[in-house]
Each structure stands twice: as structure tokens, then as C-alpha cells.
Specification:
- Strand 4 and strand 5 form a beta hairpin.
- The N and C termini lie far apart (about 40 Å).
- It is globular, with a radius of gyration of 12 Å.
- The strands form 2 sheets. A 5-stranded mixed sheet has the order 2-1-7-4-5. A two-stranded antiparallel sheet has the order 3-6.
- It has a single domain, classed as Beta-grasp domain (Ubiquitin-like (UB roll)), CATH 3.10.20.30.
- It has 3 helices and 7 strands, in the order βαββααββββ.
């Protein structure tokens, strides 16, 4: 049973990977337990958004992911 976590933008750089699989079920605290150092700090930041199966959560602390779900971590967009 697994949840796929996808890192986008600078978060992929901090994770040294585009994605990883974590054991399901997974909540916000469980996700943060797996993300250490600068990556964990960046994901916990208010400006980073979280999408569960393509739908952005208004409150990422309400995350509840089950087997087969996909979590995408979306860093703030910088323009140019």
C-alpha cells in the first residue's frame, strides 16, 4: 500500500528526486515525518500548496491520503 509523492520545481531539487513512495495511509504529520531538513521546512512553509489527486487542498494539514493516491507538492510560482 503506497502513496506517491511528487515534488515540483525547487522542491524536487531539495528532495534530490522528482517523486517518492510512502506507506499508506498518510496524513500531514506523517508526510512531514518523512521530509527532513531544508525539504521539510520548505514543504511546511505557508506558500507551498499541496494537491491530492489533482485537487489543491485549502488546508494542507487536513491531508488524508490512501493507497494509490498521489500528493503533489507545489512551490510558489516565480515569474519572469
Amino acid at each position: 500500500m503506497a502513496v506517491r509523492v511528487v515534488f515540483l520545481g525547487k522542491l524536487a531539487d531539495l528532495a534530490n528526486a522528482a517523486e517518492l513512495e510512502l506507506e499508506a495511509p498518510l496524513d500531514w504529520a506523517g508526510l512531514l515525518d518523512h521530509l527532513h531538513g531544508a525539504l521539510g521546512e520548505a514543504v511546511a512553509a505557508e506558500k507551498v500548496k499541496l494537491a491530492l489527486n489533482g485537487a489543491v487542498l485549502a488546508d494542507k494539514t487536513q491531508l488524508s491520503a490512501a493507497d494509490g493516491d498521489e500528493i503533489a507538492l507545489l512551490p510558489p510560482v516565480s515569474g519572469g
